[in-house]
Amino acid sequence: MSDRPSPALARAFAVRAFLAGTIAVASMLALAPAASAHAGLESSDPASGELLAEAPASVTMSFTEPPDLDLSSVTVVDASGAEVEIGPPERGAPPRSLELALPADLGEGVYTVSWNVVSTADGHLTAGAFAFGVGVASDEISAAPGTSEPQTPSPSALAVVGKALLYAGLALAVGATSTALFAFGGVVPARRVLLPAAGLAAVAGAVAMTIAEADLIGVSIGDLLASASGRSYIWLLATTVATLVAGLAAGRSSGRGSLVVVGVAAAAAMLVRATSGHAAALVPALPVELAQWFHFLAIGVWIGGLLPLALLLRERRAAGRPAPVAEASRFSRTAGWALLVVVITGVARTVSEAGGFGDVRAMLTDTSYGTALIVKLALAAALIGLGALNRRRSIPRLGTDDGLLRKVVTVEVAAAVGVFALTGILTSLNPDVPRGEPAPPPARRATASGADFATTTRVTITATPGTAGPNTFEARIVGYDDALPLDADEVSVLMSPIGRPEIEPTTLELRPGEVGGEGAPAAWTGTGTQLSLAGAWDLVVQARSGARTTEVPLVLVTRAPPTTSVVAQGSGDLPDIETFTLSTGEQLQLYLDPGTPGTNEYHVTAFDPQGRELPLSGLVVVAVDPDGLTETLDVTRLTPGHFAAPVEADAGRWTFEVVATSEGGTVLQATQELEVAS
Predict the structure, then answer these.
(1) pLDDT tens per residue, range 484-534
(2) Which of 91, 112, 142 represents a domain boundary (last residue)?
């Protein structure tokens, strides 16, 4: 008589040990304090909106997660939009902080700090901005953009597909090995194909995730892998490759030892992912990471075992052999215990990410993460219901009829694909619950309107707050004649700064917003930092409907910094002349001659703080007519600092956006509003 425990006893011991560990980890997790996911700005010195008598020597920013110095960037611009020379970001004394040195000769004015930070905890990119003033009045700092909510780019299709492939491949590898060892008596259906395919999907997913992350941050793959954030990708690539190699070897053997190697390699890859996602951003991380790892493993045992079960049913039916009643029963019991682990860890993780039981509802209703989670839970609930159907009806009648089980398992496999796709989306979204009352939308913004050359489509696009740095864009696209919303499939905006050919154009993909009365989106929205510099920008709004793409060129000028102006009333036939004084002392003298309906000339003259004419290297003047349509005027240089441009002016309210660049690189900007009387 052998002292070796029976397979059933071994299975029972493994299940109970795993369940006990799950409950212990979930208990620790429920008591652990939570922290924000994604790196948000926790505090700064100077603080947002702070007024200083003297210029600070440095700026220190503390984040909710540790920033990666190799992949994070910070820019500081003055009120004119000119970039201030700063030192490279360095690790600050407070935890999770960045510090950058400011120039010793920093003068008075309003300064905006824009940051793009990659978290070393979960690898997510966030961006934001805040402003402070040196030797200025409170109204000047209030006109500058305050602290913006951290903006996280929407997940790219490549990132979502990569994560779905990774999770599906690893789950299949764990499911194939667990069903073989605990339910199928060491048999892996379609072993030569299934195990390598699982490893190949995991490797493809890891590669796609790495490429997508490098593209999102805007660095090369080499730079990403060389950074602190890149270590998790290196480990993920290594463990998924190990899973593939083990799968290839196990596919050519029939022993159980090779299956154990596949399962261990896949479990290791799951552990790498658990320690580099949302769980890694919480404090303390260990119980959260363990709960996430147990969650991954249990999903692999449960959902990952569905395809092997379907293949086993097919093999037995094709070979004319009896249906695998005992195997299906053992899998059902194992999957039931795994499901219990999934539920326990899933609830614990949801509570932890929300910040407590009281915030779960807010997370589910007020965040995109919560919306995606609800859909995933609905699919999971459907899978649970199908599993219960199998346990109560399909498996008991399997000995005489395998049709019902085969149909149900096929539906389960299809639903599992949706679960993995939603998981790919979930892990790219921010689960943070908004705190307090939402901030009101900024009252000031930059706007541009125009139509395509064929005059079939009219576009109005607004950027809020309309200054250099992060902005929220809204495009309203309607028919030129009927003003009905355009039913487009995709909308994007190509942006390039005028007069700055060294800066490459960037594209922002917009997503449909509110739906209009005709069923088409009344607005398309997006958030990004494409407006990286103050001044004038060429925009091309591209709207695709089927095979047709409509392009609408626009010119958008960032919101002018605070200025003071004095109007000198013209006498006789002389026009009124308005002089704008910038916070740095330079002046722009603007007037429309003669200022009556018909042919006019718009004049711009720049002066330095001493009142001398200031030579300009470039000038952009955008005229906005009474109907809101924009036109870039064709300027002609009269003297080094004096330009003129013809304009056909109808009666009504006109706006002129002026962006001048001095030969020294200073940007002078002003907005003039004029009434052309009939």
Answers:
(1) 888 888 999 999 888 777 778 888 999 887 655 455 677 889 888 788 777
(2) 142
- pTM (whole model) above 0.70: no
| CATH number for 130 | 2.60.40.1220
| Residue among 221, 438, 202, 180 nearest 311 (CA) | 180
The answer to whether the CB of 394 falls within 8 A of the CB of 404 is: yes
375, 394, 426 - which closes a domain: 426
583 and 451 part of one domain: no
- Main-chain phi, psi angles of 619, to 5 degrees: -150, 135
Q: How many domains are there within the chain?
A: 4
Three-state SS sequence of 192-247: HHHHHHHHHHHHHHHHHHHHHHHHHHCCCHHHHHHCCCHHHHHHHHHHHHHHHHHH
Is 601 within 8 Å of 595 (Cβ atoms)? Answer: no
Q: How distant, in Å, are the alpha carbons of 42, 65, 118, 533 from that of 61?
A: 8, 11, 14, 22
The Cα 57–Cα 282 span in angstroms is 33
Whole-number Å distance between alpha carbons of 473 and 558 = 12
What does the pLDDT look like over 616-641, one tens digit per residue?
998 999 888 888 777 889 999 999 99
Structure tokens at 7: 């397979």
Position 282, amino acid: L
- Asked whether the CA dihedral 380, 381, 382, 388 is positive or negative, the reply is positive
Domain of residue 457, CATH code: 2.60.40.10
Same domain, 244 and 310: yes
User: Per the structure block, which two tokens stand in for 188?
Assistant: 């892996």
- Residue pair 497/536 in contact (Cβ under 8 Å)? The answer is yes
Cβ atoms within 10 Å of 85's Cβ, excluding its own: 9
* Sign of the CA dihedral with 47 first, then 49, 54, and 57 last: positive
CA distances from 98 to 88, 242, 350, 357 (A): 10, 37, 30, 33
